[in-house]
Predict the structure of Chemotaxis protein CheW.
Amino acid sequence: MTKGNSIVERQLVVFNLSTETYGIDISAVHEIIRIQGITEVPRTPEFVEGVINLRGRIVPVIDLRKRFGLDLVEKTNNTRIIVVEVDDMTVGMIVDSVSEVLRLPVDSIEPPPAVISSVDLEYLQGVGKLDDQIIILLDLNRVLRQEEKAQISEESFQEVAAAQE
């Protein structure tokens, strides 16, 4: 929502990872899907689970637990893949669960405090407070470094796509 030329609130997709609650801007989210067959791809970074065929499009999938160095857990019925757009690249992110879509007033967002130790501060935009809920805002542009984006770009998976046809 905007007031004049300034944004007064952000609409977020809220998800859970380990014991924390995260939010990403809904404008970056294409869709949220259940976990499905992921084809492993050799010589990719450790946090890349592989690729999925999403209606004919090969989409790389990363595991946010691995990316953030969190303990790994079994996937459950609540596990989801959030398909997002990052720098003109479509990427799936595995999360523990997706809880809701909500609006967060911009004035309730603060820089991330140094006490957040579960995730590297470089991945965060800030921390939002809504009632008694704390939401860690993820900076999607920092989740993947430039060289990592090149490694998992759609072009690099053309062999996988050809093999699946």
